From TrEMBL:
Protein name per Swiss-Prot or TrEMBL: nicotinamidase
InterPro entries: Isochorismatase-like_dom, Isochorismatase-like_sf, Isochorismatase_Nicotinamidase
Keyword DNA-binding (UniProt): no
Keywords annotated in UniProt: Hydrolase, Metal-binding, Pyridine nucleotide biosynthesis
EC number, as in UniProt: 3.5.1.19
GO molecular function, one term: metal ion binding
Similarity comment: Belongs to the isochorismatase family.
A single BP term in Gene Ontology: pyridine nucleotide biosynthetic process
Pathway(s) where this gene product acts: Cofactor biosynthesis; nicotinate biosynthesis; nicotinate from nicotinamide: step 1/1
Domain Isochorismatase-like, chain residue ranges per copy: 75-210
Superkingdom: Eukaryota
Family annotation (Pfam families): Isochorismatase
Lineage: Eukaryota, Fungi, Dikarya, Ascomycota, Pezizomycotina
Length: 220
């Protein structure tokens, strides 16, 4: 949402590009993702005591929710309350929702105990569905393999968080992973996106454009 608590600058401007991609004939499946957080989600700054609860600035230590791994911790950035389940802020923008082009809309980030940027795994890289089933309502790896998908094209928000981690996990899951740069916007379009590009290079994620040769193959 343009005036949402975690709005990404220029985010709605990419909707026409995304819709053009959704209209291409050769995609085996079109999947959308939707943050669907409980109101007591661990990433919400409002759920932590002051003074270390400043959105965007503060970090907390988060524990791995997977059985037997609870001793594992990692820092988690705190965010404004956003995308709360069953609220307007969690809805897909009408410019995209009204096209009815999405075959699946996966809700993620549903486990109050852990962050989930990627649709494939939670913040602790628990990619086994038995370990992250409380966080997401679809097994995207199995869905893609069931459609014999080999190449995954990723667009949307935010380039330095959900897009980044989804693209990296797609590559780790064995898919050829592409990020369509002109159909992406980031929370931090400079340092955050530059860091994402470095991480893409480390795992073989390719950054392409919607008018490039990689996407042209899907137009055929």
């Amino acid at each position: 949402m343009k005036n949402g608590s975690l709005a990404v600058e220029g985010g709605r401007a990419i909707a026409p590009i995304i819709n053009n991609l959704l209209n291409l004939p050769s995609f085996a499946i079109r999947i959308g993702t939707q943050d669907w957080h409980p109101s007591d989600h661990i990433s919400f700054a409002a759920n932590h005591p002051s003074p270390n609860n400043k959105p965007f600035e503060s970090f907390i230590q988060m524990n791995n929710p997977a059985p037997g791994k609870e001793h594992e911790t990692k820092p988690q950035r705190l965010w404004p309350v956003h995308c709360v389940a069953s609220t307007k802020g969690a809805e897909i923008i009408p410019e995209i929702a009204s096209t009815n082009k999405l075959d699946i809309l996966a809700k993620k980030g549903m486990d109050t105990r852990v962050e989930m940027y990627s649709v494939f795994s939670d913040a602790f890289q628990n990619m086994d569905p038995s370990l992250h089933h409380k966080s997401v309502d679809a097994d995207i790896t199995a869905t893609l393999r069931g459609k014999n998908v080999t190449d995954v094209f990723i667009v949307g928000l935010a380039g330095d968080y959900c897009v980044k981690y989804t693209a990296i996990d797609a590559a780790k899951a064995g898919f050829r992973s592409y990020v369509v740069e002109d159909a992406v916007r980031s929370v931090d379009p400079k340092e955050g996106w530059e860091q994402a590009l470095r991480e893409f290079g480390e795992v073989g994620v390719k950054v392409v454009r919607s008018d490039g040769p990689e996407v042209a193959r899907v137009r055929a």
